[in-house]
Specification:
By secondary structure, the protein is mainly alpha-helical. The chain has 5 helices and no strands.
Length: 142
């Protein structure tokens, strides 16, 4: 099943399925007959950032003013992957949550989940304060 960037299941392909809408209507209405749930879908209007003319969404440049479209700029941005060492530093500093690190390493670095789990657990263990081996001298009293 397809997943979103955050690692969640992408269920958008089911939003136009009438059987799903009917099941959702029954769930929301408590089983009342003839109850129809209206699912609102957010449509993003694509427009030029310079002249604000409405665009179809597949243009690289605005046909009116010639400015690069926002989606073209995003395509041209370099993708910078963080190494596990950099992620470890961010985790230990508290800059990123465990779930974010886990999803990043699994989805972006394509590391197996078991490996990621072991790494994060090792980092957690490293962060715990180390206990000194203290000898209780009272145990030798007779």
């Amino acid at each position: 099943m397809a997943q979103t960037a955050g690692g969640c299941r992408d269920l958008r392909k089911y939003q136009n399925d009438e059987a799903i809408q009917d099941a959702f209507s029954k769930l929301v209405s408590g089983g009342k007959p003839y109850y129809k749930t209206v699912l609102l879908k957010k449509e993003e209007v694509k427009a030029c950032s310079q002249c604000h003319i409405k665009l179809a969404g597949d243009e690289k440049f605005c046909p009116e003013c010639g400015a690069k479209t926002e989606w073209q700029k995003k395509k041209e941005e370099p993708v910078i992957l963080l190494s596990p060492e950099e992620l470890e530093q961010q985790f230990k500093k508290g800059e990123k949550k465990e779930t974010e690190i886990f999803a990043y390493m699994r989805d972006m670095l394509k590391l197996p989940e078991v490996t990621v789990f072991e790494l994060v657990n090792r980092w957690k263990k490293d962060m715990q304060p180390k206990e000194e081996n203290k000898i209780d001298l009272n145990q030798f009293k007779g």
